[in-house]
């Protein structure tokens, strides 16, 4: 199987694990911080995803949410979030997904995000466009904030990061946007920008497995993904992520950075 086929197939395998446990009785644990939860679906889905990829590309590296894997000399790294939206999943809220991306050096080659409960498979291949199931997708054409529905997320911190996020939400509302949504699964948030369901997204700090799959999908759909100041995002690091249809990107950045 080629890279694009594998990345799509592997998130579908994770979806099977999601269905096995969703709205069933299972143990929920806290990962250090009481706001960040862990379930058996997280760990089992990651095991399934890593095992599947290793069958096809045994020498590739992995950067995953739940476990640390021994590195080798390969310049290929699979970045995996086996269950993005665990807090939703654990609460019985059907907004969660699996995400995977293959990075070669500092370039994302392919990625896929699977929304299990809606059976929506978002995918992209570098230079070849973005897709929702078998349909090509594109960002929307909102040129002004008054035409824009935005999405955000809340970092686990209850300190200054939360205060900054809430202040930014207030500034956007006073800028007369259509509205702001907080869905709880960053990979899906990015895919909703890519498919035109929202005009933009921002979140204070995301791990690589949170944004890597969605980043390529947004870009291949015609949108833009940057850091807080419009800079390129250094892959494989935690970062402030801003995504948009490209047309209102500078406006979004200006409001985020307004004193």
Q: Care to describe what's here?
A:
The strands form 3 sheets. Strands 3-4-5-6-7-8-9 form a 7-stranded mixed beta sheet, with helices on both faces. It has 259 residues and is α+β, with helices and mostly antiparallel strands. The model has no long low-confidence stretch (mean pLDDT 91). The radius of gyration is 17 Å and the shape is globular. Helix 1 (3-21) packs antiparallel against helix 2 and helix 5 (186-194) packs parallel to helix 6 (208-220). The termini are far apart. The longest helix has 19 residues, at 3-21. Helix content is 34%, strand content 30%.
Number of continuous helical runs: 7
Give the helix proportion (percent range).
25-40%
End-to-end C-alpha gap: 50 Å
Low-pLDDT stretches are none
Report the sheet-strand fraction.
25-35%
Q: How do the helices and strands follow one another from N- to C-terminus?
A: HEEHEEHEEEEEEHEHEHEEH
Tell me the overall shape. Answer: globular
Q: Helix/strand-derived class?
A: alpha+beta
Spatial strand order of the main sheet: 3-4-5-6-7-8-9
Mean pLDDT: 91
Give the total of beta strands: 14
Q: What is Rg?
A: 17 Å
Largest sheet: 7 strands, mixed
List keywords for this structure.
single chain; 259 residues; alpha+beta; 7-stranded mixed β-sheet; 5-stranded mixed β-sheet; 7 helices; 30% strand; globular
What's the short story on this structure?
The protein is 34% helix and 30% strand.
